[in-house]
Amino acid sequence: MKNENPFITKGYRGPQYFCDREAETQKLLSAVRNGRDVTLMAPRRYGKTGLIHHLFHEIGSECETLYIDIFNIGDLTEFVKTFSAAVVGRFSTHAEKAGMGIADFFRGIRLTMTPQSDGMPKFSFDVLPSQAEATLQDTFEFIKSRKTIPIIAIDEFQQVRNFPENGVEALLRSHIQFCHNARFIFAGSKRHLMEEMFVLPRGPFYQSTQLMSLETIDCGKYSAFAGNFFKKAGRAFNAEVFKRLYDRFDGVTWYVQAVLNRAWDAAEGLSGDDAVEAAIDTLVEENALTYHDLLASQTASARAVLRAIAVEGCARDVSSRHFIEKHSLPAGSTVRYAVADLAEKDLLYRSPSGYRVYDRIFAQWLSQKA
Ligand SMILES: Nc1ncnc2c1ncn2[C@@H]1O[C@H](COP(=O)(O)OP(=O)(O)OP(=O)(O)O)[C@@H](O)[C@H]1O
Ligand SMILES: [Mg+2]
Q: What atom of ligand 1 comes closest to residue 45's alpha carbon?
């Protein structure tokens, strides 16, 4: 489609719509080609998932790749059902897909194959909690039996820490360390949880992976990428306006993409700051109802803290007398509790320079209402 909006805000649509990340892609390629598993960490919306899909695109037919997101998975049994079905669906041979041999790997569980319109069957695993560990073991045996190099990316991996069963991480680690033919990429946005698993000496995955932190895309490269689309379509593009947009969101990919996506259709292109403001207003407006409900579901002190931090943009000393008096907040201990709770729920983000409202559009909405 001519003049199709090139600034995508979900998924991956190929390298032409993907900005830079060349060094990061090379690093990942080198890791998987040399037998290293990788832990990919970055705050939300920096582009972890996009990078994994870009890597898979660049790998091409060299390896067989599998991506799974476990954000919504609550326990080990659910994990095993999802993981096993995805692994078998992706890595089974034609003969296996036709029903030959698969049942030998997975004894004692009900496994169903449903034909899909593309001819590839969809597998589903009927796993009881008492069978979860055995099925996981069978799944790793299945992976080990592959003749190809499976690359398995597990996104939002920190979620395994919330599973109610004991020892899930140690269990996974014990299987993964003997799964020599496959490469694993563990991605996550909750740094402290990821670090407890992968960085701290007591963590079950300590020193078992190459650690990789994803930073924001370089401003100059992003500007060239965006400007190129605008100019090619005969639309205005002002690099200084772009730089102010980039700085306003500290270069966090999703926000930059979302604003560019909205500005793309504006008659004036990205010629002035007005185009950016209008795009941000649209984003705020579209999400206003959600934000309203989100705020209403917080305690009064949490609401006050959120508003105060949104107004500041970035707040270093949230329980200081100055901050509390300036924003008429409750006692320091109440503020500290609210901040910890909001950070746990991912509504606040603790950056090296202080606390921020994690969702920048929510921050904008909050500060407009304050
Ligand atoms: N290099 C890139 N160039 C252009 N767009 C990108 C790039 N990386 C990511 N995006 C886009 O930015 C948005 C956010 O990226 P992505 O979903 O990969 O972030 P994430 O770190 O996985 O976020 P979350 O932690 O919320 O899952 C997506 O819409 C994606 O399409
Ligand atoms: Mg993601």
A: 23
Full-model pTM: 0.93
Sign of CA dihedral 35, 36, 37, 38: negative
Look at the domain 21-213 and name its fold.
Answer: Rossmann fold (3.40.50)
**Which residues, other chains included, contact 138 with Cβ-Cβ below 8 Å and sequence gap of 6+?**
84, 105, 106, 107
SS3 236: coil
304 within ligand 1 shell (Cβ under 6 A): no
Q: Which ligand 1 atom minimizes the distance to the CA of 258?
A: 29
DSSP 8-state symbol, 270? B
CA–CA gap between residue 185 and residue 205 (Å, rounded): 12
Q: At 347, which amino acid appears?
A: L
Residues of the chain with CATH 3.40.50.300: 21-213
- Cβ of 47 below 6 Å from ligand 1: yes
**pLDDT for the residue numbered 61:** 86
5 in helix, strand or coil?
coil
β-bridge mates for residue 26, sequence order: none
pLDDT at 102 over 90: no
DSSP 61-104: GGSEEEEEE-TT--SHHHHHHHHHHHHHHHH--HHHHTTSSHHH
**DSSP code string of 173-218:** HHHHTT-TT-EEEEEES-HHHHHHHHTSTTSTTTTSSEEEE--PPP
Quick one: pLDDT at residue 81?
Answer: 95
Residue of 9, 16, 17, 49 to test ligand 1 pocket, by largest number of atoms within 8 Å of CB: 49
Q: Are 188 and 157 in contact (CB under 8 A)?
A: yes
Please calculate the CA angle 55-57-63 and round it to the nearest 5 degrees.
80
Say whether 348 sits in a helix, a strand or coil.
strand
Ligand 2 geometric centre to CA of 366 (Å): 25
Q: Which of 178, 196, 176, 179 is nearest to 188 (CA)?
A: 196
Q: How far apart are CA 155 and CA 73, in angstroms?
A: 11
**CA 203: distance to chain centroid?**
22
Task: Dump pLDDT digits (tens) for 105-155.
Answer: 888 788 888 877 776 778 888 889 999 999 999 999 999 999 989 999 999
Exposed / middle / buried, residue 173 (Cβ in 10 Å: 0-12, 13-18, 19+): middle
